[in-house]
Amino acid sequence: MKALKIYIYIFLLPWTVVHQIKTNSICLQNDVHALILARGGSKEIKYKNLVKIDGLSLLARTILIIKKSSCFNYIWVSTDDHKIAIEAKKYGAIVHNRPVEYALDNTTSVASVQEFLKSHQSIHNFSLFQCTSVFLKKKYIKEAILKFESFDCVFAVKRSHNLRWKLTESLISPINFDIKFRPRRQDWEGELIETGMFYFSTRKLVSSGILQNER
């Protein structure tokens, strides 16, 4: 009976713990942890991570889709905000209490991830998710984590055949094509544009100040 109780406790720990957990003793180096950065001080749309679509906040929706992928034992939400922390715990995520100085308007995602990893030294592989990517699907996550086994990083992109221009003072000039030889859609492969949906990366890359490399 004692063995049964211990088994149930370990099984429930990742989803029910309220306070910071010490991951050093329970994480393997090849575990991939899901990480959501959700600060409370968004400017353009106040509390954008808690905006609801069909009755679910963007944060809740992201957590649930990550759960449904069955690819992660640990889902973290890094936040400086009490309301966001409550919402994260409600849907089964572990809350990392982000210091205010890493939740400013000019704080980069890389800096916030670096702070998170510094606090959780046993985490080596992670996937960064953005709540505002509303087209996230579990099949995309599964495809990505399989690729991550063979590559340094994996991130979501879309292919674009848009012809882009830039404005310099009063003049415009093409960025990705020659105006004398305008390409047809079938003439080129287009460009890969980040969607921001997810970024699978490693401690090694982030320690160098980047999320991605050529691999």
Explain this structure.
This protein is α/β, with parallel strands linked by helices and 215 residues long. Helix content is 29%, strand content 24%. The strands form three sheets. It has a six-stranded mixed beta sheet, with helices on both faces. The longest helix has 15 residues, at 2-16. The termini are far apart.
Share of helix, binned: 25-40%
Classify the secondary structure makeup into a structural class. Answer: alpha/beta
Number of helices: 6
Q: What is the mean pLDDT?
A: 87
Biggest sheet overview: 6 strands, mixed
Largest beta sheet: what is the strand line-up? 5-4-1-6-10-7
* Order of SSEs: HEEEHEHEHEHEEEEH
Please compute the radius of gyration using only Cα atoms. 20 Å
Low-pLDDT windows of residues: 1-29
Total strand segments: 10
Q: Gap between N and C termini, in Å? A: 49 Å
Using the alpha-carbon principal axes, give the shape: globular
Instruction: Tell me the fraction of residues in β-strands, as a range.
Output: 15-25%
